[in-house]
């Protein structure tokens, strides 16, 4: 199902016509990404304001992970522009912890390019990790590994955190707990979040604004509360729930 209409909501700090608003921490303008002859992203323009939580939803293969990988420098764009006002840290799809290293060593690796190497604040955010700090990360549960991946990124003290598939492979109760911690982090520290999430209901419930990416293009954008009640979004991504 193709979503082609914009929700049209206006957000303070939005970046339009290539002009970056003063409270924008991350923005792309007409971003193009290719894998050889295959176009993965075409003309993608998004923005995240300081302290804002923004969702990026869409079907598998739409280019969501490609966008985050491009923002973090893993993939080079073929065209367009990326603006970052601050420091970005990336929580990759599949968590990608270093399995043979301890939890604490995984966390400290997150600060190798700056930030405090003291993991204490991370244990305050996720107290479960303190009792696991000397265990190899590869032996943890999926939810515990996701906590490690988030905290490893936070060790860099980023201004914006990009999270790729928070809920992937995790039980609903575990997802709910991690999502609650992420929201609390945003509220207390003002860390901006760009969340790529297959679970559209979750993503729209915890963010203030969202984009729908389809076939490498932005199909819709607007307030999350508007999108979650939009009939096209409900039919395509929320199982038709009302």
Shape: globular
Number of domains: 1
CATH superfamily: P-loop containing nucleotide triphosphate hydrolases
- Contiguous runs where pLDDT drops below 50 for at least 5 residues: 1-14
Structural class: alpha/beta
Q: Taking Cα atoms only, what radius of gyration do you get, to the nearest Å?
A: 18 Å
What does this structure look like?
With 242 residues, the chain is of the alpha/beta class. The protein has one domain: P-loop containing nucleotide triphosphate hydrolases (Rossmann fold), CATH 3.40.50. Helices cover 31% and strands 25% of the residues. It has nine helices and ten strands. The strands form two sheets. It has a six-stranded mixed β-sheet with strand order 6-7-8-4-9-10, with helices on both faces. Strand 7, helix 6 and strand 8 form a beta-alpha-beta unit. Helix 2 packs parallel to helix 5. The longest helix has 18 residues. It is globular.
Topology:
Layout: E1 24-35, E2 38-44, E3 47-49, E4 53-57, H1 64-71, E5 79-84, E6 88-91, H2 103-109, H3 120-125, H4 128-131, H5 142-154, E7 160-164, H6 172-189, E8 192-196, H7 200-206, E9 209-214, E10 217-223, H8 224-227, H9 231-237
Concise summary:
The chain is an alpha/beta fold and 242 residues long.
List keywords for this structure.
9 helices, single chain, Rossmann fold, disordered N terminus, four-stranded antiparallel β-sheet, alpha/beta, six-stranded mixed β-sheet, 31% helix, 242 residues
């Amino acid at each position: 199902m193709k979503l082609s209409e914009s929700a049209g909501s206006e957000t303070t700090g939005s970046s339009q016509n290539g002009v970056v608003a003063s409270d924008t921490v991350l923005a792309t303008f007409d971003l193009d990404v290719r894998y050889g002859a295959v176009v993965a992203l075409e003309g993608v323009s998004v923005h995240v304001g300081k302290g804002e939580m923004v969702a990026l939803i869409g079907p598998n293969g739409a280019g969501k992970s490609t966008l985050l990988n491009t923002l973090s420098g893993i993939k080079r764009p073929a065209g367009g522009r990326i603006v970052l006002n601050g420091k970005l840290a990336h929580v990759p799809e599949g968590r990608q912890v270093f399995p043979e290293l301890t939890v604490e060593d995984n966390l400290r690796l997150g600060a190798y390019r700056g930030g405090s190497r003291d993991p204490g604040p991370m244990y305050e955010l996720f107290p479960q990790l303190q009792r696991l700090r000397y265990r190899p990360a590869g032996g943890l549960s999926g939810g515990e590994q996701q906590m490690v991946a988030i905290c490893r990124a936070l060790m860099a003290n980023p201004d914006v955190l990009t999270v790729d598939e928070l809920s992937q492979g995790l039980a609903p109760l575990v997802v709910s707990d991690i999502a609650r911690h992420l929201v609390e982090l945003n509220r207390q520290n003002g860390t901006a979040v760009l969340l790529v999430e297959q679970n559209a209901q979750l993503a729209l419930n915890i963010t203030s604004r969202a984009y729908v990416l389809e076939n490498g293009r932005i199909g819709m954008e607007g307030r999350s509360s508007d999108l979650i009640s939009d009939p096209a979004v409900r039919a395509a991504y929320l199982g038709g729930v009302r």
